[in-house]
Amino acid sequence: MPRHEVVSPIPGVFYRRPDPGSPPFAEDGATVTEDQSVGLVEVMKSFHQIPAGAAGTLVEFLVDDEAEVDAGQPVAVVETG
Amino acid sequence: MRRLLVANRGEIAVRIIRAARDLGISTVAVHSEADADALHTRLADVAVGIGPSAASKSYLVADAILAAAKDTGADAVHPGYGFLSERASFAAAVADAGLTFVGPDAATIERMGDKVAAREVARAAGVPTVPGTPGGVADADGAVAAADDVGYPVMLKAAAGGGGRGIRVVDDAEALRTAFGQASNEALKAFGDGTMYLERFVTRARHVEVQVLGDGTDAVHLFERECSLQRRRQKVVEEAVSPGISAQTRDAMTAAAVSLCREAGYRSAGTVEFLVDDETGEFFFIEMNTRIQVEHPTTELVTGVDLVAEQLRIAAGEPLRFAQDDIVRRGHALEFRVCAEDPEKDFLPSPGNVGRVTLPSGPWVRCDTWLEPDGKVPPYYDSLLAKVIVWGSDRTEAIARSRRALAEFSVSGIPTTAGLFAELLDQDWFASADFHTGTLEQWLATRGENA
């Protein structure tokens, strides 16, 4: 299976939920579309949604919820095709 | 007051520590993991780690801050701006712990923080408010009925709002019906309170605010600041005094702010914000900030009064040291908020490692910052790197000196907004102060198209 790495374009703190009271954007094993958000990065009090970038199955997250990420760091993997 | 805990970080924590030291008060810094080696942490007499880097797990945890105060023998807490500074429950918890809160009491914070209640205080003081609903409106039907009286366009605002969130401007009843539910839901999510109210929307508005000091009995003003240059309702450049109002408006507005302060029995430094209709010269009370503000140095430069020191003196129980006539203004001051953002990429926040840092100085230039060479700009907090504040004998001289100061500002490793200000200073509309609260965004949009 081709693997697509979902990359955070910005440094910040990665969140799997839109807010603490909501369910995650996507669970492991979920089918995702290219435009679908899989997480949120908070940087300096502004929030940026991270789209899957490819359609397929979200097979794993590479960083923990609330972990600090760098720009260009892969945060999740989507199996395409 | 012998030992002050500073419940904040960044430039304002540094600023407060310096004022305390000038008054012979020892200081306690609290810090997150990311700020273990930050300037405020090192400048204070004592430093206490209060949790992980995320502000929600450190600077916003009232219990951790109170425990740090107890452990270090602090007898007072200064909240700075942002974070817990306008949280009434925090002011109450500080007082309940037997400590002095540097700010007004919890009841005043609560009253002035509720925009509907604050407007009622203003009305009682005879201060004009923007034509609108006296209290919250219950639902969309109520909003439409109220808007018929106020006149379109109207602005829908969240009673518990702040930072520009939960605001909608609508031109007619149909748009109002659509916007009401959305805005109310947004307010409920953001602030835990979906109460909305309505105001007349002023198309060409200036944002002018009056700095006040009150000791609970008496109050004085320290003239006004103009903060019309905003992006996404966040202030970018501020100046004291306003170049856009008449002497007559200044007199009336500053008197109104003092009346409001007296009506509220206000005790501390505070800021009374007004909207000025640039076409009619009318001014209207918008809200009161019950804390020190980011732009306070502009007032300090034109009046020579150390506002943080006065806050500390008032909190310690001293009466005001000034009668109104003692406060004399001189010259003009400008403040530029230099942020770790990339103006060429829609102001994308840009944390990271910095290398060389050159800060402006020299005659009549002040730079309030926490930034140091070979430091790190963490991603967890706001993007403010430094405030460059410049004084001139008049506005023209202040602008010329600002060019010099901003040209000296340099940070390697990350983009900043410093260069953008140099362009701004060259705009004719800036030189002539022909601007309103929408001007900066209009200019940035044009600039983007021309780039």
Automatic annotation (TrEMBL), chain A:
One of its GO terms (biological process) is fatty acid biosynthetic process. Pathway: Lipid metabolism; fatty acid biosynthesis. CDD domains: biotinyl_domain. It comes from the Bacteria. Pfam families: Biotin_lipoyl. The keyword Lipid biosynthesis applies. One of its GO terms (cellular component) is acetyl-CoA carboxylase complex. Residues 1-30 are annotated as: Disordered. Keywords: Biotin, Fatty acid biosynthesis, Fatty acid metabolism, Lipid biosynthesis, Lipid metabolism. The keyword rRNA processing does not apply. GO terms for molecular function: acetyl-CoA carboxylase activity. Residues 1-79 form the Lipoyl-binding domain. Coiled coil: none annotated. Gene3D superfamilies: 2.40.50.100. This protein is a component of the acetyl coenzyme A carboxylase complex; first, biotin carboxylase catalyzes the carboxylation of the carrier protein and then the transcarboxylase transfers the carboxyl group to form malonyl-CoA. NCBIfam families: PRK07051.1. This is Biotin carboxyl carrier protein of acetyl-CoA carboxylase. It comes from Pseudonocardia sediminis.
UniProtKB/TrEMBL annotation, chain B:
Gene3D superfamilies: ATP-grasp fold, B domain. PROSITE patterns: ATP_GRASP, BC, CPSASE_1, CPSASE_2. One of its GO terms (molecular function) is ATP binding. Keywords: ATP-binding, Biotin, Ligase, Nucleotide-binding. Residues 119-316 form the ATP-grasp domain. InterPro entries: ATP-grasp, BC-like_N, Biotin_carboxylase_complex, Biotin_carboxylation_dom, Biotin_COase_C, CPAse_ATP-bd, PreATP-grasp_dom_sf, Rudment_hybrid_motif. Its EC number is 6.3.4.14. Residues 1-445 form the Biotin carboxylation domain. This is biotin carboxylase. The lineage of its organism: Bacteria, Bacillati, Actinomycetota, Actinomycetes, Pseudonocardiales.
